[in-house]
Design goal:
Elements: H1 20-36, H2 41-44, H3 46-57, H4 61-77, H5 81-89, H6 91-108, H7 114-142, H8 147-176, H9 180-185, H10 188-202, H11 224-253, H12 258-276, H13 279-282, H14 291-310, H15 316-341, H16 345-377, H17 381-401
Amino acid sequence: MALPSGSPPDPAPVRPAPTPHRLRRAGLIAGIILVSVNLRPAITSLGPLLPRIRADLGLSGTGAGLLTMLPVLCLGAFAALGPTLRHRFGEDRVLLGCLPVLLVGILLRVPAPTALLYAGTVVIGGAIAVANVVLPSLIKREFPDRVPLMMATYTMALTFGGAAAAGAVIPLERVAGTDWRGSLGLLAVPVAVGALAWLPYGRRRVRGGGGVRRAAVAPLLRDRLAWLVTAFVGLEALLAYVTFGWLPAICVDRGLGEEAAGYMMSAITFLQAAGSMAVPFFVGRGGRGQRGFCVAVSLGTAAGLTGVVLAPMWTLWFWALVLGLVGGAAFSLALTLIGLRAGDGDSAAGLSSMSQGIGYALAAAGPFGMGVLHQMTGGWGVPLAVLVALCVLMAVIGLGAGRDATLSLASRPST
Protein backbone atom coordinates (compact mmCIF):
# COMPACT_ATOMS: atom_id res chain seq x y z
CA MET A 1 0.00 0.00 0.00
CA ALA A 2 1.40 3.41 -0.93
CA LEU A 3 2.13 5.82 1.91
CA PRO A 4 0.25 9.14 1.95
CA SER A 5 2.22 12.02 0.50
CA GLY A 6 4.53 13.53 3.09
CA SER A 7 4.20 10.64 5.57
CA PRO A 8 7.58 9.41 6.76
CA PRO A 9 8.17 5.65 6.57
CA ASP A 10 7.96 3.68 9.78
CA PRO A 11 11.38 3.39 11.36
CA ALA A 12 12.92 -0.07 11.33
CA PRO A 13 12.84 -1.72 14.76
CA VAL A 14 16.12 -1.34 16.56
CA ARG A 15 17.28 -4.17 18.77
CA PRO A 16 18.86 -3.06 22.01
CA ALA A 17 22.60 -3.60 22.19
CA PRO A 18 23.74 -6.37 24.51
CA THR A 19 24.39 -5.07 27.99
CA PRO A 20 27.92 -5.28 29.41
CA HIS A 21 26.59 -7.76 31.98
CA ARG A 22 25.35 -10.13 29.27
CA LEU A 23 28.54 -9.81 27.28
CA ARG A 24 30.58 -10.57 30.39
CA ARG A 25 28.46 -13.65 31.18
CA ALA A 26 28.79 -14.88 27.59
CA GLY A 27 32.56 -14.43 27.73
CA LEU A 28 32.69 -16.18 31.09
CA ILE A 29 30.75 -19.16 29.72
CA ALA A 30 33.12 -19.37 26.75
CA GLY A 31 36.09 -19.23 29.12
CA ILE A 32 34.67 -22.00 31.32
CA ILE A 33 34.16 -24.19 28.25
CA LEU A 34 37.70 -23.59 26.94
CA VAL A 35 39.16 -24.38 30.35
CA SER A 36 36.98 -27.45 30.91
CA VAL A 37 37.73 -28.99 27.53
CA ASN A 38 41.39 -29.24 28.59
CA LEU A 39 40.79 -31.09 31.86
CA ARG A 40 40.69 -34.65 30.45
CA PRO A 41 42.80 -34.97 27.22
CA ALA A 42 46.09 -35.37 29.09
CA ILE A 43 44.55 -38.36 30.91
CA THR A 44 42.48 -40.03 28.17
CA SER A 45 45.25 -39.75 25.56
CA LEU A 46 47.43 -42.25 27.45
CA GLY A 47 45.17 -45.25 26.79
CA PRO A 48 45.45 -45.42 22.98
CA LEU A 49 49.21 -44.80 23.15
CA LEU A 50 49.92 -47.22 26.00
CA PRO A 51 50.99 -50.20 23.83
CA ARG A 52 53.57 -48.02 22.04
CA ILE A 53 54.74 -46.49 25.32
CA ARG A 54 55.21 -49.94 26.85
CA ALA A 55 57.12 -51.20 23.81
CA ASP A 56 59.35 -48.14 23.63
CA LEU A 57 60.15 -47.88 27.34
CA GLY A 58 60.00 -51.58 28.19
CA LEU A 59 57.40 -51.00 30.90
CA SER A 60 56.11 -54.00 32.82
CA GLY A 61 52.41 -54.61 33.30
CA THR A 62 52.72 -53.13 36.78
CA GLY A 63 54.47 -50.04 35.45
CA ALA A 64 51.83 -49.53 32.79
CA GLY A 65 49.06 -50.05 35.32
CA LEU A 66 50.61 -47.49 37.64
CA LEU A 67 50.82 -45.01 34.78
CA THR A 68 47.09 -45.33 34.07
CA MET A 69 46.12 -45.32 37.75
CA LEU A 70 48.26 -42.32 38.76
CA PRO A 71 45.94 -39.64 37.32
CA VAL A 72 42.92 -41.00 39.19
CA LEU A 73 44.89 -41.23 42.44
CA CYS A 74 46.09 -37.66 41.97
CA LEU A 75 42.55 -36.43 41.34
CA GLY A 76 41.72 -37.61 44.83
CA ALA A 77 44.98 -36.78 46.58
CA PHE A 78 45.30 -33.18 45.37
CA ALA A 79 41.62 -32.25 45.69
CA ALA A 80 42.25 -31.08 49.27
CA LEU A 81 44.43 -28.25 47.92
CA GLY A 82 41.45 -26.67 46.19
CA PRO A 83 39.78 -24.90 49.16
CA THR A 84 43.11 -23.66 50.55
CA LEU A 85 44.21 -22.15 47.23
CA ARG A 86 40.74 -20.73 46.66
CA HIS A 87 40.86 -19.04 50.07
CA ARG A 88 44.16 -17.37 49.24
CA PHE A 89 43.69 -16.43 45.60
CA GLY A 90 40.03 -16.88 44.62
CA GLU A 91 38.57 -19.24 42.01
CA ASP A 92 39.48 -17.11 39.00
CA ARG A 93 43.18 -16.87 39.77
CA VAL A 94 43.46 -20.49 40.85
CA LEU A 95 42.04 -21.63 37.52
CA LEU A 96 44.49 -19.39 35.69
CA GLY A 97 47.32 -20.93 37.69
CA CYS A 98 46.16 -24.49 37.02
CA LEU A 99 46.54 -24.13 33.26
CA PRO A 100 50.28 -23.31 33.19
CA VAL A 101 50.89 -26.12 35.69
CA LEU A 102 48.96 -28.46 33.40
CA LEU A 103 51.06 -27.20 30.49
CA VAL A 104 54.28 -27.95 32.39
CA GLY A 105 53.03 -31.46 33.19
CA ILE A 106 52.28 -32.13 29.53
CA LEU A 107 55.70 -30.92 28.42
CA LEU A 108 57.47 -32.94 31.12
CA ARG A 109 56.24 -36.13 29.42
CA VAL A 110 57.97 -35.27 26.14
CA PRO A 111 61.70 -35.74 27.06
CA ALA A 112 63.26 -39.19 27.07
CA PRO A 113 63.68 -40.14 30.77
CA THR A 114 60.94 -42.52 31.90
CA ALA A 115 60.84 -40.87 35.32
CA LEU A 116 59.65 -37.64 33.70
CA LEU A 117 56.70 -39.49 32.18
CA TYR A 118 55.50 -40.40 35.66
CA ALA A 119 56.42 -37.01 37.13
CA GLY A 120 54.53 -35.19 34.37
CA THR A 121 51.50 -37.39 34.96
CA VAL A 122 51.51 -36.49 38.67
CA VAL A 123 51.75 -32.77 37.84
CA ILE A 124 48.89 -33.15 35.36
CA GLY A 125 46.74 -34.95 37.93
CA GLY A 126 47.40 -32.27 40.54
CA ALA A 127 46.48 -29.39 38.23
CA ILE A 128 43.28 -31.09 37.08
CA ALA A 129 42.31 -32.04 40.64
CA VAL A 130 42.47 -28.43 41.84
CA ALA A 131 40.59 -27.16 38.77
CA ASN A 132 37.90 -29.80 39.34
CA VAL A 133 37.35 -28.46 42.86
CA VAL A 134 37.21 -24.73 42.14
CA LEU A 135 35.08 -24.86 38.98
CA PRO A 136 31.85 -25.93 40.76
CA SER A 137 32.47 -23.17 43.30
CA LEU A 138 32.95 -20.59 40.54
CA ILE A 139 29.78 -21.76 38.78
CA LYS A 140 27.84 -21.54 42.04
CA ARG A 141 29.13 -17.99 42.55
CA GLU A 142 28.58 -16.68 39.03
CA PHE A 143 25.47 -18.61 37.99
CA PRO A 144 23.47 -19.35 41.17
CA ASP A 145 20.23 -19.42 39.15
CA ARG A 146 21.63 -21.66 36.39
CA VAL A 147 23.58 -24.31 38.30
CA PRO A 148 22.18 -27.42 36.50
CA LEU A 149 22.62 -25.90 33.03
CA MET A 150 26.13 -24.63 33.71
CA MET A 151 27.24 -27.86 35.38
CA ALA A 152 25.92 -29.77 32.38
CA THR A 153 27.83 -27.42 30.05
CA TYR A 154 30.97 -27.94 32.13
CA THR A 155 30.68 -31.73 32.13
CA MET A 156 29.83 -31.80 28.41
CA ALA A 157 33.00 -29.85 27.61
CA LEU A 158 34.97 -32.07 29.97
CA THR A 159 33.68 -35.26 28.38
CA PHE A 160 33.95 -34.02 24.81
CA GLY A 161 37.56 -32.94 25.34
CA GLY A 162 38.49 -36.34 26.73
CA ALA A 163 36.73 -38.22 23.95
CA ALA A 164 38.21 -36.06 21.21
CA ALA A 165 41.74 -36.53 22.56
CA ALA A 166 41.36 -40.30 22.86
CA GLY A 167 40.11 -40.51 19.27
CA ALA A 168 42.55 -38.02 17.73
CA VAL A 169 45.84 -38.81 19.42
CA ILE A 170 46.82 -41.62 16.99
CA PRO A 171 45.77 -39.75 13.80
CA LEU A 172 47.62 -36.66 15.06
CA GLU A 173 50.74 -38.76 15.48
CA ARG A 174 50.52 -39.83 11.84
CA VAL A 175 49.68 -36.39 10.46
CA ALA A 176 52.43 -34.65 12.43
CA GLY A 177 54.93 -37.38 11.56
CA THR A 178 56.02 -37.74 15.17
CA ASP A 179 56.16 -40.46 17.81
CA TRP A 180 54.00 -40.89 20.91
CA ARG A 181 56.01 -38.25 22.77
CA GLY A 182 55.29 -35.61 20.16
CA SER A 183 51.66 -36.63 20.07
CA LEU A 184 51.36 -36.12 23.84
CA GLY A 185 53.22 -32.83 23.52
CA LEU A 186 50.70 -31.48 20.99
CA LEU A 187 48.12 -31.39 23.79
CA ALA A 188 49.92 -28.30 25.08
CA VAL A 189 48.46 -26.22 22.24
CA PRO A 190 44.78 -26.24 23.34
CA VAL A 191 45.89 -25.74 26.97
CA ALA A 192 47.72 -22.55 25.92
CA VAL A 193 44.59 -21.39 24.09
CA GLY A 194 42.49 -22.04 27.19
CA ALA A 195 44.94 -20.08 29.36
CA LEU A 196 44.75 -17.09 27.01
CA ALA A 197 40.95 -17.26 26.99
CA TRP A 198 40.83 -17.27 30.79
CA LEU A 199 43.46 -14.54 31.23
CA PRO A 200 40.95 -11.62 31.41
CA TYR A 201 39.12 -13.37 34.26
CA GLY A 202 42.11 -14.87 36.02
CA ARG A 203 43.80 -11.49 36.46
CA ARG A 204 40.92 -9.99 38.42
CA ARG A 205 40.39 -10.15 42.16
CA VAL A 206 36.76 -10.92 42.97
CA ARG A 207 35.37 -8.71 45.69
CA GLY A 208 34.71 -10.58 48.88
CA GLY A 209 37.19 -13.33 48.12
CA GLY A 210 38.89 -12.73 51.44
CA GLY A 211 35.82 -14.03 53.26
CA VAL A 212 36.41 -17.57 52.08
CA ARG A 213 36.98 -19.91 55.00
CA ARG A 214 40.29 -21.67 55.27
CA ALA A 215 39.03 -24.93 56.82
CA ALA A 216 36.22 -25.49 54.35
CA VAL A 217 36.10 -29.29 54.54
CA ALA A 218 36.39 -30.15 58.24
CA PRO A 219 32.83 -29.10 59.24
CA LEU A 220 31.40 -31.11 56.34
CA LEU A 221 32.95 -34.33 57.64
CA ARG A 222 30.27 -34.28 60.34
CA ASP A 223 27.41 -33.59 57.93
CA ARG A 224 25.20 -36.48 56.78
CA LEU A 225 24.14 -34.77 53.56
CA ALA A 226 27.76 -34.09 52.62
CA TRP A 227 28.59 -37.77 53.07
CA LEU A 228 25.61 -38.81 50.95
CA VAL A 229 26.74 -36.57 48.11
CA THR A 230 30.31 -37.83 48.51
CA ALA A 231 29.16 -41.46 48.37
CA PHE A 232 27.07 -40.80 45.25
CA VAL A 233 29.99 -39.04 43.51
CA GLY A 234 32.40 -41.81 44.51
CA LEU A 235 30.18 -44.66 43.32
CA GLU A 236 29.49 -42.88 40.03
CA ALA A 237 33.23 -42.39 39.47
CA LEU A 238 34.00 -46.02 40.37
CA LEU A 239 31.42 -47.35 37.91
CA ALA A 240 32.65 -44.96 35.22
CA TYR A 241 36.30 -45.97 35.54
CA VAL A 242 35.38 -49.66 35.58
CA THR A 243 33.49 -49.08 32.32
CA PHE A 244 36.42 -47.21 30.75
CA GLY A 245 38.92 -49.81 31.88
CA TRP A 246 37.13 -53.09 31.26
CA LEU A 247 34.32 -52.65 28.74
CA PRO A 248 36.55 -53.29 25.68
CA ALA A 249 37.95 -56.45 27.31
CA ILE A 250 34.44 -57.69 28.14
CA CYS A 251 33.31 -57.12 24.55
CA VAL A 252 36.37 -58.88 23.12
CA ASP A 253 35.80 -61.84 25.45
CA ARG A 254 32.25 -62.05 24.10
CA GLY A 255 33.53 -62.27 20.52
CA LEU A 256 33.74 -58.67 19.32
CA GLY A 257 36.86 -57.70 17.40
CA GLU A 258 39.43 -55.45 19.07
CA GLU A 259 38.97 -52.70 16.49
CA ALA A 260 35.19 -52.79 16.89
CA ALA A 261 35.57 -52.69 20.67
CA GLY A 262 37.72 -49.57 20.32
CA TYR A 263 35.11 -47.91 18.12
CA MET A 264 32.45 -48.82 20.66
CA MET A 265 34.44 -47.21 23.47
CA SER A 266 34.85 -44.02 21.43
CA ALA A 267 31.12 -43.94 20.67
CA ILE A 268 30.29 -44.39 24.35
CA THR A 269 32.60 -41.55 25.35
CA PHE A 270 31.11 -39.14 22.82
CA LEU A 271 27.58 -40.12 23.85
CA GLN A 272 28.43 -39.17 27.41
CA ALA A 273 28.68 -35.57 26.26
CA ALA A 274 25.12 -35.79 24.92
CA GLY A 275 23.89 -37.57 28.06
CA SER A 276 25.29 -34.83 30.29
CA MET A 277 23.08 -32.24 28.60
CA ALA A 278 19.93 -34.14 29.65
CA VAL A 279 20.49 -33.19 33.29
CA PRO A 280 19.09 -29.62 33.20
CA PHE A 281 15.83 -30.90 31.71
CA PHE A 282 15.21 -33.42 34.50
CA VAL A 283 16.73 -32.19 37.75
CA GLY A 284 14.14 -29.47 38.24
CA ARG A 285 11.04 -31.59 37.69
CA GLY A 286 8.93 -32.19 40.75
CA GLY A 287 10.61 -29.42 42.74
CA ARG A 288 14.31 -29.00 43.40
CA GLY A 289 14.79 -32.57 44.50
CA GLN A 290 16.65 -34.97 42.21
CA ARG A 291 15.75 -38.27 43.89
CA GLY A 292 13.98 -39.76 40.90
CA PHE A 293 16.77 -38.87 38.51
CA CYS A 294 19.40 -40.30 40.88
CA VAL A 295 17.54 -43.60 40.95
CA ALA A 296 17.03 -43.55 37.17
CA VAL A 297 20.71 -43.10 36.27
CA SER A 298 21.77 -45.68 38.88
CA LEU A 299 19.41 -48.39 37.62
CA GLY A 300 20.10 -47.37 34.02
CA THR A 301 23.79 -48.03 34.62
CA ALA A 302 22.93 -51.44 36.08
CA ALA A 303 20.79 -52.25 33.02
CA GLY A 304 23.55 -51.20 30.61
CA LEU A 305 26.22 -53.25 32.37
CA THR A 306 23.96 -56.30 32.56
CA GLY A 307 23.12 -56.01 28.87
CA VAL A 308 26.77 -55.75 27.84
CA VAL A 309 27.70 -58.88 29.83
CA LEU A 310 24.64 -61.11 29.36
CA ALA A 311 22.40 -59.90 26.50
CA PRO A 312 22.56 -61.48 23.01
CA MET A 313 25.50 -60.33 20.91
CA TRP A 314 23.29 -58.62 18.36
CA THR A 315 22.12 -56.22 21.09
CA LEU A 316 25.63 -55.43 22.35
CA TRP A 317 25.89 -52.06 20.61
CA PHE A 318 22.50 -51.01 21.96
CA TRP A 319 23.46 -51.70 25.58
CA ALA A 320 26.83 -50.03 25.14
CA LEU A 321 25.14 -46.90 23.82
CA VAL A 322 22.75 -46.99 26.79
CA LEU A 323 25.82 -47.03 29.04
CA GLY A 324 27.20 -43.99 27.22
CA LEU A 325 24.06 -41.87 27.54
CA VAL A 326 23.29 -42.91 31.11
CA GLY A 327 26.93 -42.59 32.14
CA GLY A 328 27.12 -39.03 30.86
CA ALA A 329 23.92 -38.12 32.68
CA ALA A 330 25.20 -39.74 35.89
CA PHE A 331 28.51 -37.86 35.73
CA SER A 332 26.80 -34.53 35.13
CA LEU A 333 24.25 -35.24 37.87
CA ALA A 334 26.97 -36.13 40.40
CA LEU A 335 28.73 -32.80 39.85
CA THR A 336 25.42 -30.91 39.74
CA LEU A 337 24.51 -32.29 43.17
CA ILE A 338 27.62 -30.57 44.56
CA GLY A 339 26.34 -27.20 43.37
CA LEU A 340 22.70 -27.78 44.32
CA ARG A 341 23.33 -29.14 47.81
CA ALA A 342 25.81 -26.35 48.65
CA GLY A 343 24.15 -23.21 49.94
CA ASP A 344 27.03 -20.86 48.99
CA GLY A 345 30.38 -20.72 47.23
CA ASP A 346 32.36 -21.68 50.34
CA SER A 347 30.23 -24.76 50.84
CA ALA A 348 30.51 -25.66 47.15
CA ALA A 349 34.32 -25.55 47.34
CA GLY A 350 34.38 -27.63 50.53
CA LEU A 351 31.87 -30.17 49.27
CA SER A 352 33.64 -30.39 45.91
CA SER A 353 36.96 -31.08 47.63
CA MET A 354 35.46 -33.65 49.99
CA SER A 355 33.38 -35.52 47.42
CA GLN A 356 36.02 -35.59 44.70
CA GLY A 357 38.92 -36.27 47.05
CA ILE A 358 37.25 -39.28 48.66
CA GLY A 359 35.32 -40.21 45.53
CA TYR A 360 38.31 -40.49 43.21
CA ALA A 361 40.27 -42.42 45.83
CA LEU A 362 37.38 -44.91 45.83
CA ALA A 363 37.22 -44.86 42.03
CA ALA A 364 40.90 -45.78 41.71
CA ALA A 365 40.20 -49.11 43.42
CA GLY A 366 37.35 -49.99 41.05
CA PRO A 367 39.24 -51.21 37.94
CA PHE A 368 41.77 -53.05 40.12
CA GLY A 369 39.03 -54.80 42.09
CA MET A 370 37.22 -55.72 38.88
CA GLY A 371 40.39 -57.34 37.55
CA VAL A 372 40.93 -59.31 40.75
CA LEU A 373 37.36 -60.65 40.72
CA HIS A 374 37.64 -61.60 37.07
CA GLN A 375 40.92 -63.42 37.65
CA MET A 376 39.59 -65.25 40.72
CA THR A 377 36.36 -66.41 39.08
CA GLY A 378 37.47 -66.77 35.46
CA GLY A 379 34.40 -64.98 34.15
CA TRP A 380 32.35 -61.79 34.29
CA GLY A 381 29.31 -63.05 36.22
CA VAL A 382 30.58 -62.33 39.75
CA PRO A 383 32.09 -58.94 38.83
CA LEU A 384 28.77 -58.01 37.19
CA ALA A 385 26.83 -59.00 40.31
CA VAL A 386 29.07 -56.78 42.43
CA LEU A 387 28.66 -53.86 40.01
CA VAL A 388 24.88 -54.23 39.94
CA ALA A 389 24.84 -54.28 43.74
CA LEU A 390 26.87 -51.04 43.74
CA CYS A 391 24.37 -49.51 41.30
CA VAL A 392 21.52 -50.39 43.66
CA LEU A 393 23.49 -48.91 46.56
CA MET A 394 24.02 -45.73 44.50
CA ALA A 395 20.25 -45.53 43.90
CA VAL A 396 19.55 -45.81 47.62
CA ILE A 397 22.17 -43.18 48.43
CA GLY A 398 20.71 -40.99 45.70
CA LEU A 399 17.40 -40.90 47.58
CA GLY A 400 19.23 -38.98 50.29
CA ALA A 401 21.71 -37.02 48.18
CA GLY A 402 18.97 -35.91 45.80
CA ARG A 403 16.51 -34.61 48.38
CA ASP A 404 15.55 -30.94 48.50
CA ALA A 405 18.09 -29.70 51.06
CA THR A 406 21.20 -27.55 51.25
CA LEU A 407 24.17 -27.28 53.55
CA SER A 408 26.06 -24.09 54.33
CA LEU A 409 29.34 -23.33 56.03
CA ALA A 410 28.12 -19.84 56.92
CA SER A 411 26.25 -21.16 59.96
CA ARG A 412 29.01 -23.56 61.06
CA PRO A 413 32.05 -22.83 63.15
CA SER A 414 35.33 -22.93 61.28
CA THR A 415 37.37 -25.62 63.02
